[in-house]
Please model this.
Amino acid sequence: MARTKIAAVLRDGQPGTTVDVRGWVRTKRESKGDFAFLELNDGSCFANLQVVVDGKLPDYATLIKQITTGASVAIDGEIVASPGKGQRVEVRATALRLLGTADSTTYPLQKKGHSFEFLREKAHLRPRTNTFGAMARVRNALCYAIHEFFQDRGFLYVHTPIITTSDCEGAGQQFQVTTLDIAKAGSGLRAKGSGTEKKNPDAADPASSSVTQPLALSPQPSIDYSTDFFGKKAGLTVSGQLEGEAFACAVGDVYTFGPTFRAENSNTTRHLAEFWMVEPEMPFYELEDDMALAEDFVRTIIRKVMERCPDDLQFFNDRIEPTLLESLKNIVDHDFIRLTYTAAVEILQQSGQKFEYPVEWGHDLQSEHERYLTETHFKQPVILTDYPRAIKSFYMRCNEDGKTVRAMDVLVPRIGEIIGGSQREERYDVLVERMKECGLNPDDYWWYLELRKYGTVPHAGFGLGLERTLQLITGMVNIRDCIPFPRVPGSAEF
Ligand code: ATP
Ligand code: MN
Model:
């Protein structure tokens, strides 16, 4: 007999037919040696399958003693209509095999109701809990909906590099990738920093020969990256956008969807060092088109997940965030508010609200400001546009006012920013000037500039953080609980 998944048994199983089901025991209830009830879960759906084990089965007494929470079992049985509430059918076991025990004195998930902090230390086992099983299924449904959204609209899925030599944001948040000997580079750093260590015996080494330079001028060892693996300083990508633009300006609408890395040392509930980002890029789009796509995108993917994971979302609503389903429905059913950054600043300044960080034109909005707009003022997602150019990236198209750029951020309740996007600067000369204004060397971006030199077109795009979207959809407070194995400062154990 072939194994049947529990989701299929609960959905389609006909009383009177036989099945082979396998999974992990969530709970066991024994009733006076005659019967035992097992709640079996195999991850295929939120619900457990109730299995009734008859005391007359061979080896019943020995087996049932060893079957504790967390044990894995294989069961042949008959599907019967369930007399109990909450499930249509259950299984009456005709054969029971213990696949693996889970010692009840040491199994970390023996008891229910562990804190999320505790479960983060058990990232290899937490998928076996209700919350993290549900998260895995919702994440899967979300990724499917994302691909479906773009594929339905004729976008090409392109893979942009993970290792790159261009820091898209120019914000110095890149993890470095190198095959150089760190121990050696480190000693170079100390030699220069302290000025007291002996000179490296390898006098020809340019990293150590600069030891006489004034301290202030050489905070970093002058490492010769031409000898490094890529012949240049390289790092893990902070965004696939620049490479995505190359394809958008050739094959039309594209999207990248992959891991993204930022070494920002921010211990917040909204930042990971490794996260997944979806980045569409569209030629011939201006900012309005970009916003329309972003709004359609967010509303569509949420609606699809609501349709496909009703049980999981009901659980998050019941156990994590009581306003969840209501707030998701509100997002799906209503148009997003659109206003300029400048108008938002005025609203915030006139709100009478006391913020930890004061609101001032020209400063980036903090999460508390974004949440005030979406939760208190508008009670809906908001798209802010035309941010001050001084706080936005070099590639965003400059407005005629000389003060703002064609940026747009999508802000949502409970989280703040989930999308950052813009119309891109397609004018060669303006882009070169903007790079200089941002302290970047245009020579480092020669290939990006060539996209403007040869057949430039207006274009736009945005980036959506997958895990922030999962925070929105599940109501989970901490982004570390929205990715299977979180990478954050000081932690990459699993
Ligand atoms: P924030 O200001 O909130 O740190 P950002 O402006 O640096 O975000 P962008 O560069 O605009 O972020 O990236 C696009 C999207 O990627 C963001 O809207 C967010 O959803 C997501 N994102 C950015 N940084 C992180 C991170 N460290 N962890 C998880 N998601 C992130
Ligand atoms: Mn942003």
Summary: The two ends are 36 Å apart (CA to CA). Residues 409, 417, 420 surround manganese (II) ion (ligand 2) (CB under 6 Å). The longest helix spans residues 130-152. DSSP finds 15 helices and 16 strands in the chain.
